[in-house]
Amino acid sequence: MYLENGRALVQGIMLLVFAAIAYWVSLPVGLALVAFMGVIRLQESVTNWCPSDLILRPMGLKNKLGTRT
After folding, report:
1. N or C: which end of the chain has fewer CB within 10 A?
2. How far apart are CA 59 and CA 52, in angstroms?
């Protein structure tokens, strides 16, 4: 698995958890978490770095092209 796939996996799981929080716990809190995740996705698209990289890189995941940005 590549770093990009790991990011997508983590983000998908987070989105489902935040949607469940919005449905079963608190709609404003769940929507705030989804909005925060959207900001992180925007930041990732500009910088090609995501906070989940702090966990995924030590697990041995590498970029598809082998370049580290």
Report:
1. C
2. 11
